[in-house]
């Protein structure tokens, strides 16, 4: 009897792994079919849900401001960089980004035979707050230290099952308005209930330090072109300067000034590519008074000077269009 009791937990884990493998394979097949075998990001009929397919691992990382979201890979793996921190996840984990964060992402495992297949479900912070309050996860949050605004978790059947049902719902668009919100709410519940769920709840809790950092990030995102006065920012979010620095770095892995710099550089890059303006104009528009400083910081962040970097990106775009 003792032997069978000792084996039971191992049997449960094995059964869970088998179920996750089966569900993940079904999800991969669905995403591959729904994307029509075409690489890229594909919006869907479910609000804030997008599907991704990549048949060749890109040589360069993609820089972006990542919105609060839940990301799952059915196949392949990806590297995400926040400041100097590296997060690598594959089909065995999920990624949660709980703040608007400047990150770079790179698919590191993809091939025509086994393409990278994933999905992203973006969240509104208000939805997170409402769910945390409804499911009583608000009570344990404020006593915790400010958590990093990005983390990975182990993919389980409890999380994967509603994800699969949400993607299956795309086959009946007429049911999306009624059923999608219920499934999204269930996914939020499962994430909040997970071992790392407190991290997600913290970001939306009223009067928590993390929630104040959410406000600070919002202020910086709206006014990143303006000179940064940390004292004024701290006062606006009702924190001391030292507390703002401490908790801001805890959540974002960088200081407010470093955060603003990344916002400026990413926006300048976007402007040069989409609006075909020169580096001097782009740098000035995002708040740089010194062209040499802009060129220096751009080169350090993206790995090459603005002119060379933008030329490479445009050539990549043309290559995708021609293929």
TrEMBL record:
Q: Which Gene3D superfamilies match?
A: Homeodomain-like (1.10.10.60)
Classification from the root reads: Bacteria, Pseudomonadati, Pseudomonadota, Betaproteobacteria, Burkholderiales
Name the species this protein comes from. Answer: Variovorax soli
The organism sits in which domain of life? Bacteria
InterPro entries under this entry? Homeodomain-like_sf (IPR009057), HTH_AraC (IPR018060), Tscrpt_reg_HTH_AraC_N (IPR009594)
Residue ranges of domain HTH araC/xylS-type in the record = 214-312
- What is the name listed in the Swiss-Prot or TrEMBL entry for this protein? AraC-like DNA-binding protein
PANTHER family named among the record's database cross-references: ARAC-FAMILY TRANSCRIPTIONAL REGULATOR, TRANSCRIPTIONAL REGULATORY PROTEIN
Keywords for the protein's UniProt record, in alphabetical order: Transcription, Transcription regulation
Q: Which PROSITE patterns match?
A: HTH_ARAC_FAMILY_2
């Amino acid at each position: 009897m003792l032997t069978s009791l000792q084996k039971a937990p191992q049997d449960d884990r094995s059964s869970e792994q088998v179920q996750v493998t089966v569900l993940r394979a079904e999800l991969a097949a669905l995403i591959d079919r729904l994307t029509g075998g075409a690489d890229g990001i594909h919006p869907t009929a479910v609000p804030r849900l997008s599907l991704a397919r990549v048949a060749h691992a890109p040589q360069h990382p993609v820089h972006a401001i990542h919105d609060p979201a839940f990301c799952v890979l059915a196949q392949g793996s990806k590297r995400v960089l926040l400041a100097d921190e590296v997060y690598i996840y594959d089909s065995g984990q999920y990624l949660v980004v709980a703040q608007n964060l400047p990150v770079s992402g790179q698919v590191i495992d993809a091939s025509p035979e086994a393409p990278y297949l994933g999905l992203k479900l973006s969240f509104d912070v208000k939805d997170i707050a409402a769910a945390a309050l409804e499911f009583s996860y608000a009570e344990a949050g404020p006593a915790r230290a400010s958590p990093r605004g990005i983390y990975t978790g182990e993919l389980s059947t409890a999380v994967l099952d509603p994800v699969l049902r949400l993607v299956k719902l795309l086959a009946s668009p007429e049911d999306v308005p009624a059923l999608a919100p219920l499934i999204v709410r269930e996914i939020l519940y499962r994430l909040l209930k997970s071992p790392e769920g407190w991290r997600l709840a913290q970001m939306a809790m009223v009067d928590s330090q993390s929630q104040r950092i959410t406000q600070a990030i919002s202020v910086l995102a709206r006014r990143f072109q303006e000179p940064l006065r940390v004292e004024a920012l701290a006062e606006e979010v009702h924190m001391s300067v030292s507390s703002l620095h401490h908790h801001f770095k805890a959540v974002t892995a960088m200081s407010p000034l470093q955060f603003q710099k990344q916002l400026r550089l990413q926006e300048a890059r976007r402007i040069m590519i989409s609006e075909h303006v020169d580096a001097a104009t782009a740098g000035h528009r995002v708040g740089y008074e010194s062209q040499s400083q802009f060129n220096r910081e751009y080169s350090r962040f993206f790995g090459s000077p603005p002119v060379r970097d933008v030329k490479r990106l445009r050539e990549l775009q043309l290559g995708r269009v021609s293929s």
